[in-house]
């Protein structure tokens, strides 16, 4: 089937070459009038050869000649879009507008647009940043934070915008290479995803966040358990700046995953430490710990084995009480993670059951607000840095996350767009038309790592530049100054509500103060949380 698919992609190009050759023979044998089809098909053949050789457009490298149809339709898209708007059929506005924005910033094109906002400003949920009549001017937009708490020996000076977790195996070798080269050029971090560390992560030398999932890929024993020895060897590499324990991902929290044996190449086998010819399973839960206290002890172990590098965990919020169990375990053991990444259910993935993608897990805004306020209530918010992920593509997305409590943001979708993803939604088929989410070497060839890495770095730089302009418009000196009151949100009745009303910062230490008042039911959940177990208490 794969060979047939590859033949189909080049069938149009092969057809015009054959027709050009036939026209040449016919002109020589029968009539000079065949010079007209010869010129036409000869020009298309030359165009096809140019398409295969050029590095800029992955679609054209994979679909020579035929791929130009996409750019033809793209040219008339504004008219089609206006028709859809007028007829209230505007499908997936976020995906389309975000992709367009990323492409423009990645290519270094002007991203200004005429005729003002394209959003429906009277719709419920529409939000905006309040601006000042005394804006500031920010020249240095290389915004950074230091990640690493009291027990961290090797703190990391991180960009506030980094590449979110995407595994080698889910993405092609060329896509991983382009992302890491871009991270190296732009000076930001590249999260490995749970698929281990491949040579494509290492070649360019970009900063890495080593994500460890329930499969312990790259640091596992033959029976799939955590291997301290292998982890120590991996973590010793200077390229690895932070260690991230993955509890769940937003797109399919609590589900686990599997890479079919048919998709496992020798390179994937080597990176993950799994045998060839067998399905690669990521269990839904970890085997290295089963209680909140054991989880904190495991994080402490990872910090020690890594030589004191920043250690934290990523999760999509599910049972709120369970996160409170983790926080109680932090207080009980005095093992405080250096960071926590909050993933939203709106986050993307290559494949997930529809019910999980749409109806399991907490959205990023609510999850981030809950985590931020729980840590404030426990009195340890200042010891832990918070990352946020889940459809964070634009400068406004970053500003909103920072206002709601994040210290930095991660993006998978934005950087995938930067390397050429067109959202063909063929990730699970291995037939990605632009070579991003495939292990087919011929399809992956369409993505030129060197060319796309420049776009990755440029997208990062231009997005932070836009964030600097938005920060200045709000009259602030740095993005970390954003607070909830800098946001406004429209309600369902078309009234407005200020961000600090919709997403208030709760008082410091109120959860551990017996005399403090409860807020929004936090204390009731806190009373049911236990550092010793994730299991719910018995109701009498």
Task: Describe, in short, the structure shown.
The chain is of the alpha/beta class. The chain contains 21 helices and 15 strands. The chain has two domains: 2-71; 144-502, Aldolase class I (TIM Barrel), CATH 3.20.20.
Structure description:
By secondary structure, the protein is an alpha/beta fold. The chain has two domains: 2-71; 144-502, Aldolase class I (TIM Barrel). Helices cover 41% and strands 11% of the residues. It has 21 helices and 15 strands. It has helices at 2-9, 11-29, 35-53, 58-62, 68-75, 77-86, 93-107, 173-186, 199-202, 228-235, 266-272, 292-305, 320-333, 354-359, 364-378, 395-403, 413-418, 441-444, 449-473, 499-502, 522-528; strands at residues 127-129, 144-147, 156-159, 161-163, 190-191, 208-212, 240-246, 257-259, 280-282, 311-315, 339-343, 385-389, 408-411, 487-490, 496-498. The strands form four sheets. It has an eight-stranded parallel sheet. Strands 1-14-15 form a three-stranded antiparallel sheet. It has a two-stranded antiparallel ribbon with strand order 2-3. Helix 13 links the parallel strand 10 (311-315) and strand 11 (339-343). The longest helix has 25 residues, at 449-473. The termini are far apart. The model is unreliable at 78-92 (pLDDT under 50).
Report the strand count. 15
At the fourth level of CATH, the homologous superfamily of the largest domain is: Aldolase class I
Helix content: 40-55%
- What's the number of structural domains? 2
The top level CATH class name of the largest domain: Alpha Beta
Gyration radius over CA: 25 Å
The proportion of residues in beta strands is 5-15%
CATH architecture of the largest domain: Alpha-Beta Barrel
Q: Mean pLDDT, nearest integer? A: 87
Query: What strand line-up does the widest sheet have?
Result: 4-13-12-11-10-7-6-5
Task: Output the number of helix runs.
Answer: 21
The profile of the biggest β sheet is: 8 strands, parallel
Based on secondary structure, the structural category is alpha/beta
The CATH topology name of the largest domain reads: TIM Barrel
Morphology: globular
Name the poorly predicted regions: 78-92
Separation of the first and last Cα atoms: 59 Å
């Amino acid at each position: 089937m794969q060979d047939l698919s590859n033949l189909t992609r080049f069938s149009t190009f092969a057809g015009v070459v054959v027709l050009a050759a036939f026209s040449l023979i016919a002109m020589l044998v029968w009539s000079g009038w065949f010079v007209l089809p010869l010129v036409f098909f000869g020009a298309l053949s030359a165009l096809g050869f140019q398409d295969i050789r050029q590095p800029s457009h992955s679609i054209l490298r994979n679909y020579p000649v035929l791929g130009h149809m996409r750019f033809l339709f793209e040219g008339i898209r504004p008219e089609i879009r206006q028709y859809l708007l007028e007829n209230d059929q505007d499908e997936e506005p976020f995906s389309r507008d975000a992709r367009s924005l990323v492409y423009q910033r990645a290519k270094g094109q002007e991203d200004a647009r005429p005729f003002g906002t394209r959003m429906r400003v009277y719709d419920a949920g529409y939000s905006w940043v309040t601006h000042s009549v005394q804006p500031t001017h920010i020249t240095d937009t290389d915004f950074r934070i230091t990640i690493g708490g009291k027990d961290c020996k090797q703190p990391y000076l991180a960009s506030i915008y980094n590449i979110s977790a995407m595994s080698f195996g889910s993405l092609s070798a060329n896509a991983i290479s382009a992302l890491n080269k871009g991270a190296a050029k732009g000076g930001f971090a590249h999260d490995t995803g749970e698929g281990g560390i491949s040579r494509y992560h290492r070649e360019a030398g970009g900063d890495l966040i080593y994500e460890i999932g329930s499969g312990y890929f790259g640091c596992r024993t033959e029976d799939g358990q955590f291997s301290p020895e292998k982890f120590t060897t991996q973590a010793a590499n200077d390229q690895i700046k932070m260690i991230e324990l993955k509890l769940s991902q937003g797109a399919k929290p609590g589900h686990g995953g599997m890479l079919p044996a048919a998709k496992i190449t020798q390179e994937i086998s080597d990176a993950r430490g799994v045998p060839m010819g067998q399905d690669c399973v990521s269990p839904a839960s970890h085997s290295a710990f089963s209680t909140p206290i054991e989880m904190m002890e495991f994080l402490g172990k990872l910090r020690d084995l890594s030589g004191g590098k920043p250690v934290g965990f990523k999760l999509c919020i599910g049972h709120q009480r369970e996160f409170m169990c983790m926080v109680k375990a932090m207080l009980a053991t005095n093992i405080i993670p250096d960071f926590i990444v909050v993933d939203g259910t709106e986050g993307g993935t290559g494949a997930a059951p529809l019910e999980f993608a749409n109806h399991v897990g907490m959205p990023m805004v609510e999850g981030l607000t809950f985590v931020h306020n729980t840590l404030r209530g426990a009195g340890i918010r200042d010891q832990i840095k918070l990352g946020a992920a889940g459809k964070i593509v634009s400068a406004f997305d970053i500003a909103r996350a920072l206002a709601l409590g994040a210290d930095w943001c991660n993006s998978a979708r934005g950087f995938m767009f930067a390397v050429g993803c067109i959202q063909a939604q063929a990730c699970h088929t291995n037939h990605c038309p632009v070579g991003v989410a495939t292990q087919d070497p011929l399809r992956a060839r369409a993505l030129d790592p060197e060319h796309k890495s420049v776009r990755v770095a440029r997208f990062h730089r231009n997005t932070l530049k836009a964030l600097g302009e938005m920060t200045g418009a709000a009259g602030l000196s740095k993005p970390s100054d954003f607070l909830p009151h800098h946001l406004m949100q429209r309600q369902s009745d078309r009234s407005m509500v200020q961000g600090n009303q919709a997403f208030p910062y709760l008082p410091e230490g109120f959860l551990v103060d017996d005399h403090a008042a409860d807020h929004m039911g936090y204390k009731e959940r806190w009373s049911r949380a236990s550092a010793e177990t994730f299991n719910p208490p018995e109701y009498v």
